[in-house]
Write a structure and sequence with these properties.
The chain has 435 residues and is α+β, with helices and mostly antiparallel strands. It folds into 2 domains: 1-166, Beta Polymerase, domain 2 (2-Layer Sandwich), CATH 3.30.460.10; 251-416, cca-adding enzyme, domain 2 (Orthogonal Bundle). Helix content is 49%, strand content 11%. The chain has 22 helices and 12 strands. The strands form 3 sheets. An 8-stranded mixed beta sheet has the order 1-10-9-2-3-6-5-4. Strands 7-8 form a two-stranded antiparallel ribbon. Strand 4 (78-81) and strand 5 (87-92) form a beta hairpin. Helix 15 crosses helix 17. It is elongated. The chain starts with 8 loop residues before the first strand and ends in a 5-residue tail after the last helix. The structure holds adenosine-5'-triphosphate and magnesium ion. Magnesium ion is lined by residues 45-46, 59, 61.
Length: 435
């Protein structure tokens, strides 16, 4: 890479305003032991980047010149893992610290170790390297900072500190080439932009829209992991709108994007945005969130439209929804591998929607006890908010949940609607029912 062999800059933690007590003590112990054994070892990546912003890193990664077997020899609680590259996982109870050996550039002539696809995508990169090489093969400059926990310094080969101070997300090297090597970097750029409230640097941003279709070649299981990282967080809405802006949403959820483009009203978009908003508030209140609910809202519009289109071929609305769900999910999982344990409750929430239109009888009361009632109800409320369901009907379901079972029974009696508006007094009682 052209920028390589610049002098590294060294910053003290003090001048960066970073206190070492913010760092994970297990990660520091690991670097200490590696250094005592004669190796280099640093904290690296997201943990350094987030700590510099005073944020709590979600995990701590260590980078070292010790090879996996050498790491394993030093730590009892170490397991070697890795398909794409071999890594050491050091376990502290449920907490895991990842220790990776420095990796170097992929040597084009050495086809056993590093392998580029004809379109420039990296299939394997398992070549060990030096600290400097390890820095340059990372994605963004702000992710390529190394923290020396013994000397209390940060080592910066790539200008990451400057970019961090400019709040800029910048790919190292030639952006189009780096996006082609690994198109998931497109999604990472959007995620970090929202998470850190940074800007994507102009040269990095320029090819993004054009590169978006490359996501089609990424294995669907990896895209599922990325989709969860994109949407199950407090910036879901902004990420959603940025993904659409860069044409990335279309690569992930083509059926939904098509529906959003065709929609004559803002309602389908509003429903998704509201669901993201709800995710954000739940997270802010420390409440539990499930991916299936959000994914059910993301794919609802394609399911709803297909149900409407094919309605006449089925004997019931529920059957039509099941069939549409089957088709939409089959398409979707070829792009993003949503596992069955998630698609099953998504289908249930959709297929339960017609039951909200039945307000009489035992079946209606039983519905209140259905294990998926709550999620289906929340989903119906969202639909009501965007005009797909009569708000009076939604209110009726809200109200019935607040009642004792005797009152619930009377609310679901067959004649309840016929008497609506008429006072239930003695004179009324004496007149025979009109039906
Ligand atoms: P977070 O954990 O908050 O999602 P992170 O930057 O730690 O952010 P990880 O996926 O944990 O992200 O990766 C750790 C580090 O590995 C990154 O900071 C980056 O240096 C490097 N890295 C991760 N993914 C890529 C990639 N696709 N291309 C190049 N380098 C990457
Ligand atoms: Mg990380």
């Amino acid at each position: 890479m052209s920028h390589q062999h610049k002098q590294a800059k060294h910053y003290t933690l003090r001048e960066l305003g970073l206190s070492s007590d913010r760092l994970d003590r297990h990660a520091i112990q690991i670097t200490e032991r590696l250094v005592k054994a004669g190796f280099q070892a640093y904290l690296v990546g997201g943990c350094v980047r987030d700590s510099l912003l005073g944020m709590h890193p979600k995990d701590f990664d260590v980078s070292t010149n010790a090879e996996p077997e050498e790491i394993q020899a030093l730590f009892k609680n170490c397991r070697l893992i890795g398909r794409r590259f071999r890594l050491a996982h050091i376990h502290f109870g449920r907490h895991i610290i990842e220790v990776a050996t420095f990796r170097g550039p992929h040597l084009k002539h050495d086809s056993n170790k590093s392998h580029a696809h004809k379109d420039g995508r990296l299939l394997r990169d398992n070549v060990y390297g030096t600290l400097e090489e390890d820095a340059w093969r990372r994605d963004f400059t702000i992710n390529a900072l190394y923290l020396d926990a013994q000397k209390l310094t940060v080592i910066d080969y790539v200008g990451g500190i400057d970019d961090h101070q400019q709040r800029s997300i910048k790919l190292m090297g030639e952006p189009a080439t780096r996006f082609k090597e690994d198109p998931v970097r497109l999604l990472r750029a959007v995620r970090f932009k929202a998470k850190l409230n940074f800007q994507i640097e102009a040269d990095t941003e320029a090819p993004m829209r054009e590169m978006a279709p490359l996501l089609k070649d990424i294995p669907s299981a990896r895209l599922y992991d990325e989709v969860l990282k994109l949407f199950l967080n407090k910036q879901a809405n902004q990420i959603f709108s940025d993904l659409r802006h860069y044409g990335l949403f279309e690569a992930l959820f083509p059926q939904t994007e098509l529906c959003l483009q065709k929609a004559k009203t803002e309602q389908p978009l509003g429903l998704i945005q509201q669901a993201m908003q709800n995710t954000e508030s739940r997270l802010n209140n420390g409440q539990h969130i499930t991916p299936y609910f959000l994914l059910a809202t993301l794919l609802w519009e394609p399911v709803r439209r297909l149900t409407e289109k094919n309605r006449s071929s089925f004997s019931s609305e529920t059957q039509a929804i099941h069939a549409a769900a089957h088709e939409v999910i089959a398409h979707q999982v070829s792009r993003v591998a949503i596992p069955r344990r998630i698609t099953t409750p998504m289908r249930e929430v959709w297929a339960l929607q017609p039951r909200f239109h039945k307000q009489v009888g035992v079946r209606c009361l039983r519905f209140l006890e259905h294990p998926r009632f709550r999620a289906a109800y929340d989903f119906m409320l969202l639909r009501a908010q965007y005009g797909e369901v009569d708000q009076k009907l939604a209110d009726w379901w809200t109200h019935i949940q607040t009642l004792e079972s005797a009152e619930q029974k009377s609310m679901t009696r067959p004649n309840q609607f016929k008497n609506k508006g008429k006072p239930r007094n003695k004179t009324n009682k004496s007149t025979p029912p009109s039906s």
